[in-house]
Amino acid sequence: MIIVGVGGGIAAYKACSLVRHFTEAGHDVRVIPTESALKFVGAATFEALSGNPVQTGVFESVPEVPHVRLGQEADLVVIAPATADLMARAAQGRADDLLTGTLLTARCPVVFAPAMHTEMWEHPATRANVATLRERGATVIEPASGRLTGKDTGAGRLPEPEEIGLLADLLLENPAALPRDLEGRRVVISAGGTKEALDPVRYLTNRSSGKQGYALARLAAQRGADVTLVAGNTVGLAAPSGVHVVRIASALDLRSAMTEHAADADLVIMAAAVADYRPAEVATTKLKKGSDGRSEQLESITMIENPDVLAGLVDARARGDLRPETVIVGFAAETGDDGGSVLDYGRAKLRRKGCDLLVLNAVGDGRAFEVDENSGWLLGADGNETALPLGSKTAMAGRILDAAVERVAAAGTGAAR
Ligand code: CTP
Fold first, then answer.
1. Could you tell me the distance, in angstroms and rounded to a whole number, from the CA of residue 396 to the centre of ligand 1?
2. The whole model's pTM is what?
3. Residue 333 in contact with ligand 1 by CB distance below 6 A
4. Distance, CA 187 to ligand 1 centroid (Å)?
5. 138 partner at 20 to 30 Å CA-CA among 38, 127, 181, 346?
């Protein structure tokens, strides 16, 4: 059974979609709002969506002792929105309503999805409460930045229900999926395909969706890192919560953005699908067909090679333009052929690029591109090779980060990456 706890904030309406997310996956859901949450969304809405009765106090249905029973029976408790007041009460161990009582009796994973004004989120009292809740094993999700109630914008916005649902599903599968092992670390990740312009209306790109890079950025931020996501062409993905997104178009833009942001990074991950070539000339006006209905310029396009951004970052580290302990991760999408297997090509690419870790995906037959699942291998420059079983791009991101975090920790001690 999943408990959705709802605090008294304007974002309480988003809890409705979250309840839907869980019921549609077949879970039994109990909604426990606070008294003030019911000023925003009525109990009838939560009852209809969850198919279960809703109560807020400890003096209702007393013979069933709900404040003890619900917590004991839960497989997961998700609080969305978690207001500053609700987190303060939870950190103090109060039990003055059904929700806080339930938090004291629950032994399952507990997730707080905070929503409040930036000032409240940044206040030392809230920081201390968040730290206390995390120390005790709860997951406090990094809030999103953006429009808050009223005219202001900043950090403290409730992540979208899909994102909370995705992180909750991950914790349901593995309660240890979001350790805070990247706290204080700077992580720079590239994602998506590059766009190489031909003229003001046309460009060449590839089938990369950006999903793997976005999943990595999302989890790295939730594991405590300060994350910059350098994003190219993606399939309309929403910015992950707590991540700073820099948009780029071409491979040359990507190189400048990566060079700038990687300068003080602990971990750099090149998940972007970089175009190997770009049109040698970019027309400043639209290329048109002539009176004969043909365009010589479009029939034959001269291409020139793009720089290898990943290999460039490895060189920059060797030159001292990047910190020597920066861990660099590359990606490879390969198909096997008569010349060698996917693994042969992956190993050769790892040597050629000089990065510390290579995520190798077998492609072809609809695998890896534009889909939600992936499989492959993790190849380390230290000779370690691990198979990545078929799983969601989020699960894959978790495994990649586990391997990368190990190397970041080792690099900090001066050991081999
Ligand atoms: N990459 C890069 N710059 C390029 C091409 C690729 O930084 N111009 C990076 C990708 O982000 C990825 C890794 O290099 O992390 C491997 O990309 P891939 O396209 O598989 O490699 P290529 O070097 O293009 O090799 P291939 O000849 O197999 O296309």
1. 20
2. 0.94
3. yes
4. 20
5. 38
Q: How far is CA 111 from CA 13, 108, 346, in A?
A: 18, 10, 38
Residue 133's Cβ-side half-sphere holds a number of Cα atoms within 13 Å equal to 30
To the query of whether residue 206 is one of the catalytic residues in this protein, the response is yes
Any atom of ligand 1 within 6 Å of the Cβ of 251: yes
Q: How far is the CA of 332 from the centre of ligand 1 (A)?
A: 7
Position of tokens 């198909």? 335
| Side-chain half-sphere exposure of 356, counting CA atoms within 13 A | 26
Separation between Cα atoms, residue 284 and residue 321, nearest integer Å:
35
Per-residue pLDDT band for 415 (boundaries 50, 70, 90) equals: low
Q: What is the pLDDT of residues 177-220, one digit of tens each?
A: 999 999 999 999 999 999 999 999 999 999 899 999 999 999 99
Instruction: Note the pLDDT of residue 82.
Output: 98
Helices within 93-196 (DSSP H only): 98-105, 118-122, 124-135, 161-173
Task: Assess contact for 31 and 40: CB atoms under 8 A.
Answer: no
Q: Which of 52, 129, 206, 233 is catalytic?
A: 206
Give the tens place of pLDDT for each residue, 107-141. 999 999 999 999 999 999 999 999 999 999 999 99
What whole-number distance in Å separates Cα of residue 278 and Cα of residue 303?
5
Q: Is the distance from the beta carbon of residue 219 to the nearest atom of ligand 1 less than 6 Å?
A: no
For 307, residues 6+ apart whose C-beta sits below 8 A from its C-beta are 251, 252, 255
Helices (H), 175-250: 211-222
Q: Average pLDDT of 317-328?
A: 96
* Other C-beta atoms lying within 10 Å of the C-beta of residue 300: 7
